[in-house]
Amino acid sequence: MPTTTMTQPLPRSSTSQSLRRLIASLAITILCTINLYYNIYNLDGDLLKDIARSYLHPIHNNGQIEREQGFFDDWGASNSEMNKLKNISLPHGSFFFGPDSHQVDIPESDVFDPSASWSSLQHELLDDDSDAINVELEKKRCATYDFGFPDATMPLKRRRLFYGALISGDSAEVIKATSMEQYNIYHTVSLIESNTTQNLTPKKWRFFGSKDASKELNWLYQLFGPKTKVSVDYYVTSQRKDQIDGDELLIEYFQREGHSYRWKFNGMRPDDIAIIADIDETFSRDFLRALQICDVPQFRPGQSCRAPKVYASTLIFESSPECAWKTKSALRNSAGRGRAWFHPDAILGECADQIGDTKLHPPTKRDRWESHGTRLDYYGHDNEYTYYDTKVLADLNMEGQGPLWLPHDFRREEGGEDAWKNDEWESPTAYHFHNFFMSGEEVRFKYSTYGHADSKALVKSLRHIHADGDIMLAVMCALGNHTEDTESSFESIAGTSRPIYYLNKEARQARHSMWQDIVRRDEEMYGQSNDIDDYYEEEEDEDEEDDDEEDDEEADEDQEDDEEEDEDQEGEDEEEK
Question: E-strand spans in 195-277?
């Protein structure tokens, strides 16, 4: 069990400590309730419109969306405007497709040049989009990842890359970090927003329906470079909580399906590359360039599509560029465990839903409406194809082929190879900027409303939200405490991979200082106790007290039942007499 150097708390009685925690919990509850209020309600006074949107369901004959009976009659202008967008209705909800960045005229007041703030080193690394291919440079790059270089039978050209990620309340900081790494590389960036969280908590549209939304959208259009088509599309689910059976990631799976349609609208071909990520994840720029030109076995034409993935070896930053987990390779001579991550994921277009050929790759069976949700066991789930072979391919006199991959399959299913640099450190090929939020309230909102939600997150201190992992590491890092699982600073990270955005020392310091301020305010409100065991023992004591009360109530009820049975028996005896 790794040890953490921790500052000692000031001594105080258990009563005063409990009182402080109670006051802090009430304060955080009030703050987060206010935050949730503003996420649910329109600030201009049009109350409950966003809640109404979360009860929408598709009408398949005309592509419009309609409310469940009994809800509000006036949706407001934003709903009617959304219905004007190109839309597709599926059994689980509807997608509305906005314009891409090449189809809009951005007002002069919103125009900006992301490269204006780059350092000279960042310019050197990012000014690499020449149409001319430096063969010797690219051969060296491919060898770095154990990829071959195209031979005389292969076309020497850059593949087109198509990207998909969900977007919600992600901070501008993290979007700037990932988009800089990707600047002018992608053909298409497909971003999809929903008006609910993964556990169906309603929330406002961030990129639709207001002047502020338009300004944010115009900002987003320009971050990824003028060569990239950037779009934000919108998903409205028709599902209720009782329909997802507690599997909150189902909503994420459904929402990701929109990427395939956007890629198809933008002209994706079977020889293009599809990449699925979270908005806070990115392949390194050098690896993206390698995927464009190297001889990657998974990208050769004629794939069976059973194991088509190339996935990352990922360096994880927690809340600050100065707070990083050590990778597994960096811990070969250490007792630490570190943290492994394996996203983003890339596959060839011929294996992607809506792009590949269903005659060559017959559909598999899934757990929702047969064609949505997770693959069934033995129908390709966890790379096991026994029933797919015997009950799908055999009927078609086919063998060896696999089904096309829905966007969420990229992350959910097995089948492919991970990639890292072929250097002495096995340097990573991707970065994950995890929990780079701008306030403690944003952290709590995430952990209380998204996948694997913690019902107590709104009233916990930051360090106790995820006490054995992510947030605890970030809090300790902000306080200057590190373990054998973590890097001591950005500069101490082993290997040759560094995110380009944070090569700027000022950007690193600004983000780390902000995170330290967030932690400092949280510690002042909750106190500086590091005794996590005591914290959970208090919770366990409260749970035990609740259990004891329930046992007492059950015992009282049993006693009452026994007394009633005795009275009934006495009555029967009297009647017999």
Answer: 229-237, 273-276
